[in-house]
Write a structure and sequence with these properties.
Blueprint lengths: L1 H7 L7 E4 L2 E4 L2 H15 L14 E6 L5 H10 L12 E5 L14 E5 L8 H5 L6 E9 L3 H16 L2 H6 L3 E6 L1 H11 L7 H36 L8 H4 L6 E7 L6 E7 L17 E5 L8 H8 L2
Organism: Blattamonas nauphoetae
Main location: endoplasmic reticulum
Pfam families: SRPRB
Amino acid sequence: MEQFFSKALSQCPFAEIPIGQYSFPISTPIILALLTILLIITCPCWGRKRTAKATPTIGIIGLTGSGKTALFYTLKEGETPETFMSEKENSAIFDLSHCTNKKNSNKKYQYIDFPGAENTRQKFFNHPDFPNIRKLVFLVDSTSFKKDVPRIGSFFYSILTSPTLIKKKTPIMIAFNKQDLLYLKNSDDDSDDSESEPDKHGEQNRRITHNIVSLEKEINKIRTAKASVTRDLSDAVPIADDQKKKSFFSFFSRSKPSPQTGKVDTIDCYVTSTIGEEFSLRSAECRIDWCECCVIQKSLEPIIDFVCSS
């Protein structure tokens, strides 16, 4: 190699640089140019930052015992295994083509079953894949909804006020699970077994409407408490007339000088004062749907429709 360089550059009038017992005329710029070419050839991606594209995520959340893990495995494998409470999430990438032929059923998502215990709930918002969540399925145990509604409302409020989810307008499906146990309980309480099919649908609609109204009332209780705290703060956010017409969870920005630097920064804020209208899920900034389902009986059509919808 050294003899090759000596022969090729023998006519160049540059200072000689000794290499071992040989010496041949060569210049520093030529050495740098040759090294640069060598690096470009051996490292095609040199100087280029490459990032793997994140897989869109479907989040499965809810309180402990609502059936999240059972739903995860039923969607993944088509079977509902016996599950147990865990403080670690389950995660897998798969499509739903094995359980439906709906449009987009062959589209792969990363499904994550997040733990529902209160002491691990913050892990949901701090999870590395949280920014990649495309849709949320919020599972509710219908048999214990009445006594759990304060905790369900608190959890759901934290979701509705998440800056990441608000900015992305992440769609949410509230799925009231364990309808088989609910029907069994109602049949034991009702001596008339001749209820017609239309009556059953009417009862289902009344039940789910009652649950949604109860959830909205709980959210409004939290909203009122938050509003009173906000009014007591010295830097409470003023609400303009155009903001009063928006829903309680409207997202906007304001400018405020930094006390440390004096620099004016843009700060993301929420309307946290009473607007005069009761909040409803229909008026939320994101799309919120609700349904009844039964994971153990694989009655998941509304959830599958929600995941496959564009």
